[in-house]
Design goal:
heterotrimer; A mainly alpha (about 220); B alpha/beta (about 300); C mainly alpha (about 220); A: about 220 residues; MetI-like fold; C: about 220 residues; mainly alpha; transmembrane (chain A); MetI-like_sf (chain A); cell membrane (chain A); membrane (chain A)
């Protein structure tokens, strides 16, 4: 097996673009997922049964089916419902919904970890639900659920590879494409592996950094 | 008279350490308008279990009412219903004339919107057995939070009022401390300050000293006595019979969800007639008069 | 929107493909379990080098997306002298290696949760390390981590949707082929989702039942 690093320099532009697409879809998917997840969690914890039951069904559906199948439904099945999306928006939507459901479960356990009594006291004082969530629950939850959130963000990073199957030109698609063209499978696949390992490691380092910083911030609430 | 209380014994003779006249009978009701809190035929069930039955109760301005009774008698549920932390099923609870928690429509009764509930109970303050302070905020932060979010005070005004409240309960020097750094008694006093900051017309206390070590109970009771002396309307669920005897205008004995006896402290503690009340007081005395059967 | 005759026609094909998916997933769970025990034990070894080896395995096989791992297998098995490996075997190898990393972590937690006294007693009775592993540590760890292992099964079944890159006609690939020919995307992919739910929803229910029973026993 030969190893020819010039493959990279020849295609640097494409690889760079693919990397950007990976980062872009990943971060958009995470943001969408966090927002959706928070909405779902609040509806589950504070909503009435009319909301809870269909949500529970939806969550179980998403958790029981592969991400790829959900992507297919959005990208190939969407047009039948009038939603014709380009690959990248479809990918972001898929990531957002998939991640959102898992984030919702994390947020839900976080909400339930804050003692009910604290919310009752807030209730009695006239503090609204929204204010309670923002000022009392979230600050206390955050430190506890941060590891699980970081873990899920890492999972979403790895799932971006699957986006290549619906023709999104992210890192996997770009590098395997180059590999097929030049038959330089060793180099491209190796770089692909290293690339993801770097991303995953960065993610967990960032997570640890955030944990210490959030912990310090919470114990210095200015009042 | 069937007096269970031996002179020189355990429960001090009922007096009122107030500037008002000592009372030998419960305050006369002057109609619903003057009462701060009115309960009519209030009932509640948990599934098949009826925890409150036909509760009629009126609390006048500046009156101190103590609810006593064995565990499971429903006294906490009753108190929490007054703040609509428990939804009562039957009857009506009115705060200063306004119906709490429900709306009567021509289609029957339905739960009032949250804004309306908050409106009706904005003059009700509550103190919990478990304090329920917010651990990620300082004492001052806890006291000021509602002032800023609900009363929309500016940071400066809230801080001023907050410090005044902490000073009132004797904890101004602990304003920047976190709940974890405070003793149980101090935490409960912060909780009282937090409720007082909103200038309530009536304060509800749910076994405020039950979670405290005995030596810390006194400081909280002292604050509550001061409040009573200043004329605060109070409803207190408590096991502290001394406090009830000394401070209450009326004592209500609850058992298995119903009001079995009510009267002045003297009537309840000295002249108990109902057998269930006698049994309850005897149990209390047995637990607390431990030195009577001391060996040696 | 739904073409019922077509649905009835496609269902048996998908059912057959479901069987393929299940075979591969179960095989991967078994082999992954073996790998997981080995790597998990490595991680708890007193020798630092072995610990680091175990750690490296987990880092690599949990850090690289499964799709990339499967591509690696597809392109490299021929190069290391196994050109005629069937897609099924390739799929099982790929899934097992990845599953092994996750199961290793699960097992590590399970091993650590065993009260130390049990191992002391076994040692005093003269059991060898290998015997202790097989007769005490593994069964106990499995008992303690059963909900997590069932969860891993669910994850494997979902992960198997990617094995088409090594040429295996699993449930997803079959549905893709059907949709490509009859253009009934919504119907075919909803059926596909339905088949996955058929297996995974009961499994998830079983996992939560196990978890509840575990909590009751250790409470």
């Amino acid at each position: 097996m030969t190893f020819d690093p010039s493959i990279f320099t020849d295609h640097l532009g494409d690889i760079g673009l693919g990397f950007l697409v990976t980062l872009g879809t990943w971060s958009s998917g995470v943001l969408l997922g966090l927002a959706l997840g928070m909405l779902i969690a609040v509806a589950q914890v504070f909503g009435n049964n009319l909301m809870r039951v269909p949500l529970r069904v939806f969550i179980e559906l998403i958790r029981s089916t592969p991400f790829l199948v959900q992507l297919f439904l959005v990208y190939y099945g969407g047009p039948s419902f009038g939603i014709s999306l380009d690959p990248i928006p479809a990918g972001i939507l898929g990531l957002g919904v998939y991640g959102g459901v898992y984030f919702a479960e994390i947020f839900r356990t976080g909400f339930q970890s804050v003692a009910r009594g604290q919310l009752e006291a807030a209730d009695c004082l006239g503090i609204t639900r929204l204010q309670s969530i923002w000022r009392i629950q979230l600050p206390q939850m955050l430190v506890m659920i941060l590891p699980a959130l970081v873990n899920m963000v890492t999972v979403l990073c790895k799932e971006t590879a699957v986006l290549s199957i619906i023709t999104i030109p992210e890192l996997t698609m770009v590098l395997t494409g180059i590999g097929s063209e030049t038959f330089a499978f060793v180099e491209t696949l190796l770089m692909l592996c290293i690339g993801y390992l770097i991303l995953v490691e960065l993610c967990s380092r960032l997570g640890m950094f955030l944990e210490t910083r959030v912990g310090r911030f919470m114990s210095r609430q200015p009042r | 008279m069937n007096s269970l209380l031996i002179p020189g014994g355990n429960v001090p003779a009922p007096t009122r350490e107030t500037t008002r006249e000592p009372l030998d009978e419960p305050m006369k009701t002057n109609g619903e308008q003057s009462s701060v809190l009115t309960l009519s035929k209030v009932g509640k069930s948990f599934g098949n279990l009826r925890v409150l039955k036909g509760i009629d109760l009126q609390v006048q301005r500046s009156e101190v009412v103590c609810l006593i009774g064995p565990s499971g008698s429903g006294k906490s549920t009753l108190l929490r219903s007054m703040a609509f932390l428990e939804e009562y099923d039957e009857g009506a609870i009115r705060i200063e004339g306004q119906l709490l928690g429900w709306q009567d429509t021509d289609k029957g009764r339905r739960r009032a919107p949250q804004a309306q509930i908050n409106q009706v109970r904005r003059n009700v303050g509550m103190v919990f057995q478990q304090f329920n302070l917010w651990p990620h905020m300082t004492a001052l932060g806890n006291v000021c939070e509602a002032l800023r979010r609900v009363r929309k005070l500016s940071a400066g005004d809230a801080k001023q009022r907050g410090m005044a409240m902490l000073d009132k309960v004797g904890l101004a020097h602990k304003a920047e401390a976190y709940p974890a750094q405070l003793s149980g008694g101090q935490q409960q006093r912060v909780a009282i300050a937090r409720a007082l900051a909103m200038e309530p017309h009536i304060m509800l206390f749910d076994e405020p000293t039950s979670a405290l070590d005995p030596e810390l109970v006194g400081e909280v009771l002292q604050v509550m006595k001061t409040l009573a002396k200043e004329g605060m309307t109070m409803v207190v669920v408590t096991h502290e019979m001394g406090f009830a005897a000394q401070v209450a205008d009326s004592v209500i004995f609850l058992d298995q969800g119903e009001i079995v006896a009510r009267g002045t402290p003297r009537q309840i503690f000295h002249n108990a007639e109902q057998p269930r009340l006698q049994q309850f007081l005897q149990n209390y005395l047995d637990r607390n008069a431990f030195w009577q059967d001391a060996k040696g | 929107m739904f073409d019922w005759p077509l649905l009835q026609q496609n269902a048996p094909l998908l059912l057959g493909a479901l069987w393929v998916t299940l075979q591969v997933s179960i095989a991967a769970l078994v082999f992954g379990f073996v790998i997981g025990i080995v790597v998990g034990s490595l991680r708890l070894s007193p020798i630092p080098l072995l610990r680091r080896l175990g750690g490296a395995y987990i880092f690599v096989f949990r850090g690289i997306p499964l799709l990339v791992q499967l591509l690696f297998i597809y392109y490299f098995l021929p190069r290391v002298g196994l050109p005629n490996v069937s897609p099924t075997v390739a799929a099982i190898i790929g899934l097992s290696l990845a599953a092994g990393a996750y199961i290793a972590e699960i097992m590590r937690g399970g091993f650590r949760a065993i009260p130390g006294g049990q191992l002391e007693a076994a040692g005093l009775l003269g059991m060898s390390d290998a015997q202790m592993l097989m007769r005490i540590r593994v069964p106990q760890a499995v008992r303690l981590t059963l909900p997590a292992l069932v969860n891993e099964m669910i994850l494997l079944i979902k992960a198997s949707s990617l094995v088409s890159v090594v040429g295996l006609a699993d449930l997803t690939r079959t549905a893709q082929n059907l949709a490509a020919s009859d253009y009934m995307f919504v119907q075919d992919y909803l059926m596909l989702a339905g088949f996955y739910c058929l297996i995974n929803v009961p499994l998830a229910y079983a996992a939560s039942l196990l978890e509840r029973r575990l909590k009751e026993r250790t409470a």
